[in-house]
Amino acid sequence: MKMKTYRIRKPKIVVIGGGTGLPVILSSLRNQSADITAVVTVADDGGSSGELRNSVDMAPPGDLRNVLAALSDMPKLYEDLFQYRFKKEDKFLANHTIGNLIIAALSEMRGSTYEAIQLLSHMMHVDGHVYPSSESPLILHAEFEDGTKAVGESKIALDRKTIKRVFVTGKQKAHEVHAARKVVQSIQDADMVVLGPGSLFTSILPNLVINEIGEAVKNTKAEVVYICNIMTQKGETEHFSDADHVRVLHKHLEEKFVNTVLVNTEKVCEGYMDPSIYDEYLVQVTHDFNGLREEGCRVISTDFLKLRDGGVFHDGDKVVDELFRIVFGAKL
Known about the structure:
Layout: E1 12-17, H1 21-29, E2 35-40, H2 47-56, H3 62-71, H4 76-82, H5 98-110, H6 113-123, E3 129-132, E4 138-144, E5 149-151, E6 163-170, H7 183-189, E7 192-195, H8 200-208, H9 211-219, E8 223-227, E9 231-233, H10 242-253, E10 260-264, E11 281-284, H11 289-294, E12 298-302, E13 305-308, E14 311-314, H12 316-329
Parallel strand pairs: 1-2, 1-7, 2-3, 7-8, 8-10, 10-12
Antiparallel strand pairs: 4-5, 4-6, 9-11, 13-14
Helix pairs in contact: 1-3, 1-12, 2-5, 5-6, 7-9
């Protein structure tokens, strides 16, 4: 385990997103002396999370569970138990994780997923703050360039159409969409706001299109950093360059708000990825550095690559080292 670094002044870093990319960065951030806040999407409607959000009327727990585990210092056995997923042959419990069920139970006990996450953060000795982006489950909608629409995060990539825009609504049509408590203030008080890594349309944007969060990110004095995905994603960012990712972010918020983009330039060996496990990823994102500069972004390009288990990931330690060079290069 990497030795934790201590500093007199802890930079306030807010990380916004969801999916598998967010915990990678948070795990490495936890080894640094930072005041960490994770803002996590609540638009997931697939798998165990989708079943529980429909059964218990709660925010989907999966991404929140992974973030709690990434920021917790609990013993490895406890973490393994929290993350344990029942086998698909187990009928009633099939594919549910222990952590998801614990979050569901606490959500029902407290009448609030937000309160459940705060209680679990204390119980699990989480180093930082974990907030759902909204205190109610949200429904993600997509409009495609051909004029058709899709409803539900798990449905958006199925037809592999070009996405024009995404937006969120409350689970109940009459419910207005608001940011969860402390989210906006955390963004306003931050030294740095980090977006990603994660699925552009289904992990990052579902947070930013909540109006209060989008406005906070645009208006914060913090450095806004986008960690660009290494691979394109089937049905979301096929044929995308790194500049295309940023253009989509700016188009959705109607303003050029990203200050710095981290781009991986290391090549993935052909045939390395295991398609039976990572079938949603296609090819590496192409580079358009002039396009990024036209979007008003500083570009930091280097080797951020980590290959493991037949998959392509960001090297969390390399990314976090760069984030700290950026944040300490600015006035804290």
